[in-house]
Write a structure and sequence with these properties.
Structural class: alpha/beta
Strand content: 5-15%
Number of helices: 13
CATH class of the largest domain: Alpha Beta
Order of helices and strands: HHHHHEHEHHEHEHHEHH
Shape: elongated
Largest sheet: 5 strands, parallel
Distance between the termini: 82 Å
């Protein structure tokens, strides 16, 4: 029994890795026939659909590789809730030209003001442009560095971290570091100095970073490298998360609280 043209076509499109062609060719053919579109127009529509789908998959793959904890774009950030933030600068940074110039970004401000959101938004923008991006919290990074040192694979991890065009280190200052952890983290910044861009978010002003690294010498050397080519985002203000919580109905907030102990 001879295979029908549809079966052969499906086989060839799979072999050519054109899944959108396979899924859409019949529907687009009927649409083009109804509109009187000729063969070149029909093929153009199919190729456009295939390209769009490939671009979507590529962006999804890039985001997954960056290990973002969540996908957040700057389009969803409420700039009106944080007047202290320089919106013009953030949108300029979203063009990712600072990454090509190997400049750094430091977002400093109290908790809940959206520092991680902005960092993720800038990371997403860079990733969509095809730049390699890594995301990790400072505490998790130090843990990985110490573990890698103990397992004698520190050099490989350091090379990986140094290789990112953009490395995002979130929540620096939330957890004090041991001397070993501070020195290993400093080495990451040192290896990236003028070789790649780094985004750092912190809830502490610079004059309190010594409390994290427990060494004025180390803190001074770190800030010297980080702030040589830097864009600073001031993000102090009321906690966005707290304001969102206050806006929720009282019953919804009460539902989040633990059950009260039974009356005696």
């Amino acid at each position: 029994m001879t295979d029908t043209p549809q079966v052969l076509l499906a086989h060839h499109l799979k072999a050519l890795k054109l899944p959108t062609f396979l899924r859409e060719y019949d529907k687009v053919a009927r649409s083009c026939a109804a509109e009187g579109v000729e063969h070149p127009g029909y093929l153009l529509r199919l190729t456009e659909l295939e390209l769009i789908e490939r671009e979507r998959h590529m962006v999804e793959r890039r985001i997954k590789e960056a290990k973002f904890p969540a996908v957040k774009s700057l389009d969803s950030f409420d700039f009106t809730a944080l007047p202290s933030l320089n919106k013009t600068l953030v949108l300029e940074l979203a063009r990712s030209e600072y990454v090509l110039r190997r400049e750094n970004v430091i977002a400093v401000g109290n908790s809940g003001t959206g520092k991680s959101h902005v960092a993720l938004g800038l990371g997403l923008a860079a990733r969509q442009k095809g730049l390699s991006v890594g995301f990790i919290t400072a505490a998790a990074l130090v843990h990985e560095l110490i573990e890698a040192r103990d397992e004698k694979r520190l050099l490989r991890l350091q090379r990986q971290l140094a290789g990112y065009k953009l490395l995002i280190i979130d929540e620096l200052g939330y957890v004090p570091l041991s001397q070993t952890g501070a020195e290993l983290l400093f080495e990451v910044f040192s290896q990236r100095y003028e070789r790649g861009s780094t985004i750092v978010t912190s809830n502490l002003p610079f004059d309190e970073w010594t409390g994290v690294f427990a060494s004025e010498r180390l803190t001074g050397a770190l800030l010297d490298r980080l702030t040589h080519h830097v864009h600073i985002l001031e993000m102090n203000g009321d906690s966005y998360r707290l304001k969102q919580s206050k806006r929720r109905p009282r019953a919804a907030r009460a539902a989040d609280l633990p059950d009260s102990p039974p009356e005696q």
